[in-house]
Amino acid sequence: MKPTILFCVATDSFYFLFLTYLFILACLTPGLDTALNLIKIGSTVAFIASRLFIYCYLFENINIQRELVNFSIYSCNWTKMDLKFKKLLLFTMRMNDANQMVIKASPKKIINLQLFANIISTSFNMVPVLLKITNSENHKSQET
Hints:
Layout: H1 2-28, H2 34-75, H3 83-96, H4 113-143
């Protein structure tokens, strides 16, 4: 399941960047079919952004719920229980928290809403660079 999650997040991130770039290019290009292109590309960008948001929101929710299980186990009235129950409770908490299991896109990137914000921020930081490169290439081709 992990490679599929990584693949979906990575491809959606790339598509979001690429389509945002195309959307801005369509806004800057005059023409008769510009409005239709803006609607097509804009709706696709919104769809991919919502899909990324859903991935990140749901996986963050799963991670939070897993952490809450340990808190709930600890919150029971374990101090009044016998030694066997306390050992079992400790074992259960260790098993639930083994290896700090969270859903990750890479060894260091946890899939959560912060990742979604980073994807959106990075995309909107890269689009002006791509537009500048496109404009400089257009000026070079017009000069020759």
